[in-house]
Structure to design on (327 residues):
């Protein structure tokens, strides 16, 4: 009887620690910078008496906070769900090519002039992510070896690079500048006007995955086991793939390609919570992703993916060394 008690207490401690870290890094994200901001200086946005501190807070720091939190949550939860679905510890939106598909959609939108504001970029990213998801899904049904999925993701990445190169050759200088800037990845690109759309997109993806918790808990032991429990495997796969595609697409559209969060954070969450129950792991991974991205956002003078690689690469190497065992 003591084992469940230990797990519950560990989960509570884990969530308390992550929440405290989240509040700490969120506070630093809003207050740290060359301009000192006092909370008494802040008022409503777009009011006649707004001062410089008010503008910096609402136009720069608050959107950066939202971008880091939503991207961390989206990519971490998507990565965890894909690793469970394919029973592969190295699966993730970036490795499986889903993020690359979203990147191709954004490239078509920006370089081919098909963008219609935030909705156009997000829609293009979603279409690209869903297209790659369909390819991965088709491959997963034909081959029992999940390693094939990693090879497919690599090939998709090369193919997308080739397509983007062709688009770059025929694009104008301004479109190319915008795309190159977007491709570097940044939490500072989100504007106040895009916060609502980003939040709605992430919420939609999370709701799809929340409806798949029972499926995720069962499918990690195999499709046959899940069917034996009365779980609709086909519907579960569709919900998970749609949810992860929406999450990866939204994060990529608004923040650019963000590496390693989707593949590394699920393992960090498991090391902290030591459970395979996705009712704990999903919110745990979401908090871990948000904390990691908030911490990375503080290094504003360094490339975002370079900072994230310092955490992500050791975690991936650790997974490989321990034999690629799934959490």
């Amino acid at each position: 009887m003591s084992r469940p008690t230990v797990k519950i207490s560990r989960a509570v401690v884990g969530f308390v620690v992550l929440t405290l870290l989240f509040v700490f890094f969120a506070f630093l994200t809003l207050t740290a910078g060359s301009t000192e901001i006092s909370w008494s200086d802040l008022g409503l946005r777009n009011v006649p008496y707004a001062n410089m501190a008010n503008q910096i807070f609402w136009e720069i720091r608050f959107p950066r906070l939202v971008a880091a939190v939503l991207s961390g949550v989206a990519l971490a939860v998507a990565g965890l769900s894909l690793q469970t679905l394919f029973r592969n510890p190295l699966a993730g939106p970036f490795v499986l090519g889903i993020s690359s598909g979203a990147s191709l959609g954004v490239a078509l939108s920006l370089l081919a002039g098909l963008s219609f504001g935030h909705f156009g970029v997000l829609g293009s990213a979603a279409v690209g992510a869903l297209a790659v998801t369909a390819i991965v899904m088709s491959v997963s049904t034909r081959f029992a070896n999940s390693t094939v999925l990693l090879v497919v993701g690599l090939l998709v990445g090369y193919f997308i690079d080739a397509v983007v190169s062709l688009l770059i050759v025929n694009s104008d200088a301004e479109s190319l500048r915008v795309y190159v800037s977007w491709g570097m990845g940044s939490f500072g690109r989100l504007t106040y006007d895009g916060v609502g759309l980003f939040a709605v997109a992430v919420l939609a993806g999370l709701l799809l995955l929340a409806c798949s918790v029972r499926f995720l808990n069962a499918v990690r032991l195999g499709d046959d086991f899940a069917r034996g429990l009365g779980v609709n495997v086909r519907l579960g796969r569709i919900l998970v793939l749609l949810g992860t595609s929406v999450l990866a697409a939204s994060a990529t559209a608004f923040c650019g390609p963000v590496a390693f969060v989707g593949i590394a954070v699920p393992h960090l969450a498991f090391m902290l919570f030591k459970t395979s129950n996705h009712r704990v792991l999903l919110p745990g991974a979401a908090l871990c992703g948000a904390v990691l991205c908030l911490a990375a956002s503080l290094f504003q003078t360094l490339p975002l993916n370079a900072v994230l690689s310092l955490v992500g690469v050791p975690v991936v190497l650790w997974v490989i060394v321990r034999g690629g065992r799934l959490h």
